[in-house]
């Protein structure tokens, strides 16, 4: 099905996606997809109604905060009553949508497993003896070549398992570095200042 | 004989009871235990007294109102008569000469001997404790100079620890005081630990970037200058040799030495390793000897990680180049 080059790139791509999801968090990915689906793809009436109700609720809250309850008591109570009514409707709609949301989340997690884990499993089982690529001659000594072809690949080649191992190692390091740089820029500076002040006190 | 009033009857009974207790209703028992019938104690128990004792016990166990008839019987009975006969029975019985019962069963000489022995033992114990404390303080002072000429018992760590707990060793007291840290000091320590961890992370990732750049430079150098054949999807039958691996290993050795120097200079650095984390969790169950070994393994684990990380860059480079080139 796959030539060596295709297999190599497919495995590389799958592992990049898998590691990215693990760094970001599967729950966050599912939440994002749920919001995307509801925002742009969904034509569910209940969802549209819920969105409109929430917009109305925000407007009512703004209007209610802008008037004084002592001066315009009647209007304020009317707005309050509408707000309570809207809140109840929103609550009801949300409870109806919870079931749909959990079903959607289950489908998404199955989808992620199907596109990443299952292909990797198949590849590991059915292509375990296929070499990924051959190294230039004389670059590594024999004992290193033996490890690189582990368990059953050809001499002077890199086996699938070794290739997967090294890709995972590299991607973990790279993502860890990116995460550290991101944290350093946004949050760690304040934390470091706090720690420094405590230590020097 | 005129009848006595109830109050008088009770008074008489009370007096008899008190006399009996003072004399010791257990004189016979005591004599049996000690086996000596001294002159201070009387073995005489008249039948009158025995009857008396029985009746007193009966009266004591019941209410006064209920026992009025019995009292009346007693009064009309032999008690009244016998009271008249033995009116001075209380005066006839003298108090024992010596009320100290510890001398019972012993002669005076024996008792004195025992007292002397006890005093001697106490003196010996005091002397022994003094010697021990003196020696323990001396042992503590000599501890830093590793003077092992003292008592082998004192050099035993368990025994010295026992002594120090008995004495309330000053060093241990100081340690206890130090251990009673305030909340601020604990916070400071935690902040210091976090700082060390952050510093270590910073060093780790900067080191990673430096290594990455050096290895990629080496790869490009070998690729272009040494006529290194590219990796391919088919087996290479050429016999060319390359010094790439020698350069690679040399660089790895340099990185390892640099890392070890850094770690040794900053001993308080918390190495972010699974082994160290495990040690922190179950450190109490592992003996000190193995802890050091495990910490050494943690250091070497980091170096092995560096080697694998760098090798992964090389393998990835060759893998992608086999497809693209």
TrEMBL record, chain A:
InterPro entries, sorted: Get1 (IPR028945), Get1_fungi (IPR027538), Helix_hairpin_bin_sf (IPR029012)
Keywords from UniProt, A to Z, are:
Coiled coil, Endoplasmic reticulum, ER-Golgi transport, Golgi apparatus, Membrane, Signal, Transmembrane, Transmembrane helix, Transport
Ranges per topology, Lumenal: 1-7
Provide the primary localization. endoplasmic reticulum
Provide the transmembrane region boundaries. 107-126, 162-182
An example of a Gene Ontology BP annotation on this entry? vesicle-mediated transport
UniProt entry tagged with the keyword Transmembrane helix: yes
- Provide GO CC annotations from the record: endoplasmic reticulum membrane; GET complex; Golgi membrane
Q: Which residues lie on this side of the membrane: Cytoplasmic?
A: 175-201
Q: What GO annotations for molecular function exist for this entry?
A: protein-membrane adaptor activity
The signal peptide annotation in the UniProt record is 1-22
Q: Where in the cell is it found?
A: Endoplasmic reticulum membrane; Golgi apparatus membrane
Topology term for the membrane: Multi-pass membrane protein
Subunit details for this protein?
Answer: Component of the Golgi to ER traffic (GET) complex, which is composed of GET1, GET2 and GET3. Within the complex, GET1 and GET2 form a heterotetramer which is stabilized by phosphatidylinositol binding and which binds to the GET3 homodimer.
Q: Which family does it belong to?
A: Belongs to the WRB/GET1 family.
What exactly does this protein do? Required for the post-translational delivery of tail-anchored (TA) proteins to the endoplasmic reticulum. Together with GET2, acts as a membrane receptor for soluble GET3, which recognizes and selectively binds the transmembrane domain of TA proteins in the cytosol. The GET complex cooperates with the HDEL receptor ERD2 to mediate the ATP-dependent retrieval of resident ER proteins that contain a C-terminal H-D-E-L retention signal from the Golgi to the ER.
The name this protein goes by in its record: Golgi to ER traffic protein 1
Q: What is the lineage of its organism?
A: Eukaryota, Fungi, Dikarya, Ascomycota, Saccharomycotina
Automatic annotation (TrEMBL), chain B:
Membrane-crossing ranges are 205-224, 244-263, 306-324
Q: Where is the composition biased (Acidic residues)?
A: 91-100
Q: Where is the composition biased (Basic and acidic residues)?
A: 52-72
Stretches for region Disordered: 19-103
* Gene Ontology terms: biological process: retrograde vesicle-mediated transport, Golgi to endoplasmic reticulum
InterPro entries (UniProt xref) = Get2/sif1
**What keywords sit in the KW lines?**
Membrane, Transmembrane, Transmembrane helix
Question: Domain of life, per the record?
Answer: Eukaryota
Q: Does the keyword Transmembrane apply?
A: yes
Give the PANTHER family listed for this entry: GOLGI TO ER TRAFFIC PROTEIN 2
How is this protein named in the record? Golgi to ER traffic protein 2
Query: Which organism is the protein's source?
Result: Pachysolen tannophilus NRRL Y-2460
């Amino acid at each position: 099905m796959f030539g060596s080059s295709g297999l190599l790139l497919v495995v590389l791509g799958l592992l990049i996606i898998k590691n990215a999801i693990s760094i970001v968090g599967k729950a966050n990915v599912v939440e994002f997809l749920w919001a995307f689906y509801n925002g742009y793809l969904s034509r569910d009436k209940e969802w549209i109604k819920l969105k409109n109700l929430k917009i109305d609720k925000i407007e009512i809250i703004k209007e209610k905060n802008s008037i004084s309850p002592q001066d315009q008591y009647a209007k304020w109570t009317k707005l309050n009553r509408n707000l309570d009514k809207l809140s109840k409707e929103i609550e009801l709609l949300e409870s109806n949508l919870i079931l749909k949301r959990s079903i959607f989340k289950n489908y998404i997690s199955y989808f992620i497993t199907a596109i990443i884990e299952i292909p990797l499993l198949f590849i590991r089982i059915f292509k375990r003896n296929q070499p990924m690529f051959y190294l230039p001659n004389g670059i590594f000594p024999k004992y290193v070549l033996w490890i690189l072809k582990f368990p059953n690949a050809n001499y002077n080649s890199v086996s699938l398992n070794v290739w997967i191992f090294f890709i995972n190692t590299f991607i973990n390091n790279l993502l860890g570095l990116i995460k550290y740089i991101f944290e350093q820029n946004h949050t760690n500076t304040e934390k470091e200042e706090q720690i420094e002040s405590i230590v020097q006190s | 004989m005129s009848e006595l009033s109830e109050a008088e009857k009770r008074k008489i009974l009370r007096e008899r009871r008190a006399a009996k207790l003072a004399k010791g209703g257990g004189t016979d028992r005591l004599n049996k235990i000690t086996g000596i019938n001294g002159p201070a104690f009387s073995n005489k128990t008249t039948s009158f007294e025995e009857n008396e004792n029985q009746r007193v016990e009966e009266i004591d166990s019941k209410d006064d109102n209920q026992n009025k008839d019995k009292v009346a019987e007693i009064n009309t009975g032999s008690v009244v008569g016998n009271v008249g006969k033995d009116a001075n029975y209380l005066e006839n019985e003298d108090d024992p000469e010596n009320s100290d019962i510890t001398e019972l069963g012993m002669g005076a000489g024996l008792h004195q001997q025992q007292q002397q022995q006890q005093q001697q033992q106490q003196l010996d114990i005091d002397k022994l404790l003094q010697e021990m404390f003196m020696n323990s303080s001396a042992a503590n002072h000599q501890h830093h100079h590793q003077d092992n000429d003292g008592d082998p018992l004192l050099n035993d760590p368990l025994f010295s620890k026992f002594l120090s707990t008995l004495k309330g060793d000053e060093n241990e007291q100081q340690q206890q005081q130090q251990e009673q840290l305030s909340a601020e000091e604990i916070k400071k320590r935690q902040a210091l630990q976090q700082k060390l961890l952050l510093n270590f992370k910073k060093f780790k990732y900067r080191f990673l970037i430096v290594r990455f750049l050096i290895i990629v430079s080496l790869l490009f150098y070998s690729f272009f200058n040494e006529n290194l054949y590219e990796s391919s999807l088919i087996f290479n039958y050429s016999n060319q040799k390359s010094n790439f691996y020698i350069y690679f290993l040399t660089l790895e050795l340099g990185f390892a030495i640099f890392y070890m120097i850094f770690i040794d200079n900053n001993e308080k650095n918390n190495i972010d390793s699974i082994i160290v984390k495990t040690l922190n969790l179950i450190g109490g169950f592992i003996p000190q000897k193995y802890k050091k070994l495990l910490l050494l393994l943690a250091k070497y684990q980091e170096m092995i990680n560096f080697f694998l990380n760098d090798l992964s860059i090389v393998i990835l480079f060759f893998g992608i180049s086999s497809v693209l080139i």
